[in-house]
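Try this one yourself first.
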């Protein structure tokens, strides 16, 4: 079984003992028995402060909900929000009380998932304050080999795209922090407590670990598999299945014909995935309370499945079949970029006539180049 950094006790002792520690973590920061790293690290080393990302320290907040600073009811420690109304960075007054900041969260290996924005912000904050950042490393659930999607263009940087990464980037948190720190010359004093027993070709089921949902919208590993592709739906008037038991695994709208869309996607013969018609009524988010039709994605072969390609093919199928009904969501505020562009990391999908094949070819070139570049920062074979 793969052991995460939290369970690498000798390395943790060397890195953490005798220091005033702050901990950036979430509900996903657990050991192999699903015990919270907050309590484990507090008992073992004594924590000074906690920092919570999007979704909150204990995973209680929904997607995009701001989180207030508070006090943790279990440990009594102060909790500083890294997803607040006014700031998403560690306050200087909190860092003054610390010798080092520990980062321990299980993310998804996907550019949109905001835990990496929090990680890269921590690299910058610790560098500026002269503090050590200690990453307790964890597996990339989608493996360390496959890379997919276009590299984010700098003008589309946001909290769902904090750096020039492809959508699926094939790095652990420790590797990503090291790559960012070195390539952007941040000067952070970075320590990585490594994984044990992880190999790059491993997907999550190969690790032997139980899957702890990192947020309400990712209830199981199967959701994480499709998320790099179907998250693009969040920038459109299609439901991505929020408010159902299968977020990101079902996609549709009141004006979609389930069988017609299923037939179209089956005709495209996409690798590693099957489609069945879906009928669902979301209880929240887009089309809440409305009967929707669409498709359900079933990953038949996780190693050959390419979620980003699948997501683009799905959007292309819907806009082709229902050009009058399908639409992108407007920007959240005047002067902002459409959310679909922040997710895609480029402006191509704003054009109603975007060329699917040309976009996929460009994404392939960019992801292949990144896959070569990232090898210099690998910590694992």
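Now uncover the answer:
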């Amino acid at each position: 079984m793969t052991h995460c950094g939290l369970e690498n006790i000798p390395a943790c002792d060397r890195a953490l003992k005798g220091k005033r520690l702050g901990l950036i973590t979430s509900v996903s920061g657990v050991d192999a028995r699903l015990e919270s790293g907050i309590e484990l690290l507090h008992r073992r080393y004594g924590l000074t402060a906690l920092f919570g990302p999007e979704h909150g320290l204990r995973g209680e907040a929904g997607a995009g909900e701001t989180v207030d600073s508070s006090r943790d009811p279990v440990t009594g420690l102060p909790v500083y929000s890294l997803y607040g109304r006014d700031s998403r960075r560690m306050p200087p007054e909190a860092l003054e009380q610390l010798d080092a900041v520990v980062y321990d969260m299980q993310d998804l290996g996907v550019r949109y998932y905001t835990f990496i924005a929090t990680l890269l912000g921590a690299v910058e904050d610790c560098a500026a304050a002269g503090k050590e950042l200690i990453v307790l490393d964890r597996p990339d659930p989608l493996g360390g080999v496959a890379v997919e999607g276009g590299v984010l263009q700098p003008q589309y940087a946001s909290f769902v795209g904090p750096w020039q990464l492809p959508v699926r980037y094939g790095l652990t948190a420790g590797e990503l922090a090291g790559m960012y720190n070195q390539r952007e010359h941040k000067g952070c004093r970075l320590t990585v407590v490594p994984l044990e027993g992880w190999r790059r070709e491993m997907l999550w089921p190969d690790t032997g670990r139980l899957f702890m949902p990192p947020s309400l919208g990712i209830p199981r590993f199967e959701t994480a598999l499709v998320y790099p592709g179907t998250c693009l739906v969040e920038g459109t008037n299609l439901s991505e299945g929020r408010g159902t038991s299968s977020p990101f695994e079902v996609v549709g709208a009141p004006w979609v014909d389930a069988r017609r869309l299923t037939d179209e996607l089956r005709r495209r013969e996409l690798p590693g995935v099957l489609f069945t018609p879906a009928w669902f009524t979301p209880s929240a988010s887009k089309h809440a309370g409305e009967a929707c039709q669409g498709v359900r994605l079933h990953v038949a072969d996780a190693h050959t499945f390419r979620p980003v390609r699948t997501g683009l093919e799905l959007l292309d199928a819907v806009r082709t079949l229902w050009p009058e009904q399908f639409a992108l969501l407007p920007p959240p505020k005047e002067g902002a970029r459409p959310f679909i562009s922040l997710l895609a990391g480029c402006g191509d999908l704003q054009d109603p006539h975007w060329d699917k094949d040309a976009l996929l070819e460009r994404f392939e070139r960019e992801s292949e180049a990144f896959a070569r570049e990232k090898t210099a920062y690998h910590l694992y074979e």
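Discussion: The mean pLDDT is 96. The first helix runs from residue 9 to 16.
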